[in-house]
C-alpha cells in the first residue's frame, strides 16, 4: 500500500508540473503573438461557409456578426439542411433585417450516404464556388465573432508555410447546469492540447482554395465524419502547418446538462479516435488525468477504513495539492482569456452586448473545485462508453461508423421545430 501511495503521489505531482508547463507555454504564445493584418488591397476574396441543421441558441447573433465584417470582399454562403429546418426561417429573417447583399442561402441538395451532413454541405458549397474566391473560411453556428474576425483569420495565410488558420472555442464557467461547468473544465485542457498538437477547429477555420485542391481535402471530407481533426496530418504531408490565432478565441455561452454532455463526449472521443493525429497521447493523458486521481480517492477511502493514517495523509495531501493546482490553472487561463476578449472587443456583438465576461465569484470558484473530480468521472465514463459504440446520433441523424473512411448514414430526417430544446440556451 505504501509503495503504491508513493508512486501515485509522485505521478500526480509530475502530471501537475507538466500541465503547468504546457499552460505557461500557451499563455506565453497568447501574450507574444502580434497582429499583422493585411491592408484591404491585399486581402483575397473569401467565401465564408456556414452549415446549418437546427436553430442554435445564438444563431441570429452569429449571422449578424458574420454579415458585418470589416473585410472588403467576402460572401457568406449558408447551406441549410432543408427548407423546413428552423434555421432557414431565422436565417432568412436575419438577412432581410440586415439588408445584406453578400449572402446566399441554399438547401443541402444531396445528402451523401458515406459522410456526415456537415461534410456533405461543405463539399456542395465549395464545389459551387467560382475561381474568384481565393480563400474559404468555415464557421459554426455557435460562433459569435467580432468585427475583425475574418481579417484576422485570413491575414496569416499570406505566409506560404501556413496551410490553415484557426481559433478555438472557450466556454464560460457560469451557468445553471453542472453539465455546462464540466464541459468548461474539460475544454480548458482541450484548448491547450489542440494548440500544442496544432489541431484546427472547424468553428473558425480558413484555407486557401489552392491548398484545398492541392491536398485533395474535399475527397477526404466526402468520406469522413468530421472535417477538422484530420487536417493536421494532411497538411503536414504537404509541408504546411496549422496556425492558431489567439485573437480568435471564441466565447460560447451555451448550456448543457450532464446527460447530453455524456452523449456529446462519446461522439467527440470516437471522432478523436478516428482522426486525431495524437490519439495515443490523448489516451495517456486520460490515464494521468482520470485514472490516477480516481485510484487515489479509492485508496484514501481504503486507508481510512483500515486506519492506515500515514498513507491516507500522504494521498490526501497530494490529491489536495493536485486539485487546487488544477483550479489555479483554470483561474489563470480564465483571467487571461478575459483579458484577450476585452482587448479584441469581442464582447460587443452586433446589437445588444452579449456580456461574455464570467464573474469569478466565490460560489463559482467553489463549484469549479467540486467540478474537477466530477469532470474526471464524467469523462472517464464517456471514454469507457465510447469503446463499444459503432453508431453515432447527432441532431436526429444516425451514422454507422466502421472506420475513419467507412461512414454510412443509416437514418435521416429533416430537422423540425419540435426538435428544438425547451431551454433556448441549451446546445442542440
What shape does the CA trace take? globular
Please report the total strand number as a whole number.
Answer: 10
Order of helices and strands: HEHEHEHEHEHEHHHEHHHHEEE
Number of helices: 13
Largest sheet: 7 strands, mixed
* Nearest-integer average pLDDT: 92
* Model regions low in confidence, pLDDT < 50 over at least 5 residues: 346-356
Helix/strand structural class:
alpha/beta
Q: What is the first-to-last residue Cα distance?
A: 46 Å
Strand order of the largest sheet: 3-2-1-4-6-5-7
Residue share in β-strands: 15-25%
Rg over CA atoms, rounded to whole Å, is 22 Å
Helix content estimate: 40-55%
Fold and architecture overview:
By secondary structure, the protein is an alpha/beta fold. It is 50% helix and 15% strand. It has helices at residues 2-32, 59-66, 86-98, 117-127, 149-154, 178-197, 209-215, 217-221, 231-237, 258-275, 279-305, 309-343, 362-386, and strands spanning 46-52, 74-80, 103-107, 135-139, 162-171, 204-208, 241-252, 391-394, 397-401, 407-411. It has a 7-stranded mixed β-sheet with strand order 3-2-1-4-6-5-7, sandwiched between helices. Helix 1 crosses helix 11, helix 2 (59-66) packs across helix 3 (86-98) and helix 6 (178-197) packs across helix 13 (362-386). The chain is globular, with a radius of gyration of 22 Å. The model is unreliable at 346-356 (pLDDT under 50).
Amino acid at each position: 500500500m505504501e509503495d503504491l501511495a508513493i508512486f501515485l503521489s509522485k505521478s500526480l505531482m509530475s502530471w501537475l508540473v507538466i500541465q503547468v508547463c504546457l499552460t505557461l507555454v500557451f499563455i506565453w504564445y497568447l501574450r507574444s503573438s502580434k497582429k499583422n493584418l493585411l491592408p484591404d488591397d491585399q486581402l483575397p476574396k473569401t467565401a465564408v461557409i456556414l452549415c446549418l441543421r437546427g436553430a442554435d441558441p445564438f444563431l441570429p447573433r452569429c449571422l449578424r456578426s458574420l454579415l458585418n465584417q470589416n473585410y472588403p470582399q467576402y460572401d457568406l454562403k449558408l447551406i441549410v439542411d432543408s427548407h423546413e429546418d428552423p434555421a432557414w426561417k431565422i436565417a432568412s429573417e436575419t438577412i432581410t433585417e440586415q439588408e445584406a447583399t453578400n449572402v446566399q442561402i441554399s438547401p443541402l441538395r444531396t445528402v451523401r450516404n458515406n459522410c456526415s451532413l456537415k461534410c456533405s454541405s461543405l463539399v456542395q458549397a465549395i464545389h459551387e464556388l467560382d475561381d474568384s474566391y481565393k480563400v474559404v473560411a468555415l464557421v459554426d453556428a455557435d460562433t459569435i465573432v467580432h468585427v475583425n474576425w475574418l481579417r484576422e483569420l485570413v491575414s496569416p495565410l499570406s505566409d506560404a508555410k501556413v496551410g490553415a488558420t484557426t481559433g478555438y472555442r472557450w466556454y464560460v464557467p457560469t451557468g445553471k447546469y453542472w453539465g455546462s461547468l464540466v464541459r468548461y473544465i474539460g475544454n480548458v485542457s482541450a484548448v491547450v492540447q489542440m494548440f500544442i498538437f496544432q489541431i484546427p477547429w472547424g468553428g473558425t477555420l480558413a484555407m486557401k482554395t489552392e491548398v484545398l485542391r492541392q491536398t485533395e481535402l474535399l475527397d477526404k471530407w466526402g468520406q469522413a465524419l468530421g472535417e477538422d481533426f484530420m487536417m493536421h496530418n494532411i497538411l503536414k504531408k504537404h509541408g504546411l502547418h496549422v496556425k492558431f490565432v489567439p485573437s480568435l478565441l471564441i466565447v460560447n455561452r451555451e448550456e448543457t446538462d450532464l446527460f447530453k454532455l455524456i452523449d456529446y463526449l462519446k461522439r467527440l472521443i470516437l471522432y478523436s479516435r478516428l482522426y486525431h493525429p495524437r490519439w495515443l497521447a490523448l489516451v495517456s493523458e486520460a490515464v494521468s488525468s482520470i485514472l490516477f486521481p480516481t485510484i487515489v480517492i479509492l485508496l484514501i477511502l481504503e486507508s481510512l477504513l483500515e486506519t492506515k493514517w500515514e498513507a491516507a495523509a500522504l494521498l490526501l495531501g497530494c490529491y489536495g495539492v493536485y486539485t487546487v493546482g488544477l483550479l489555479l490553472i483554470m483561474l489563470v487561463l480564465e483571467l487571461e482569456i478575459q483579458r484577450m476578449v476585452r482587448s479584441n472587443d469581442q464582447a460587443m456583438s452586433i446589437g445588444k452586448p452579449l456580456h461574455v465576461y464570467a464573474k469569478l465569484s466565490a460560489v463559482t470558484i467553489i463549484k469549479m473545485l467540486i467540478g474537477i473530480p466530477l469532470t474526471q468521472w464524467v469523462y472517464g465514463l464517456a471514454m469507457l462508453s465510447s469503446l463499444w459504440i459503432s453508431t453515432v446520433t447527432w441532431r436526429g441523424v444516425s451514422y454507422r461508423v466502421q472506420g475513419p473512411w467507412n461512414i454510412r448514414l443509416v437514418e435521416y430526417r429533416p430537422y423540425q421545430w419540435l426538435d428544438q430544446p425547451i431551454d433556448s440556451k441549451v446546445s442542440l
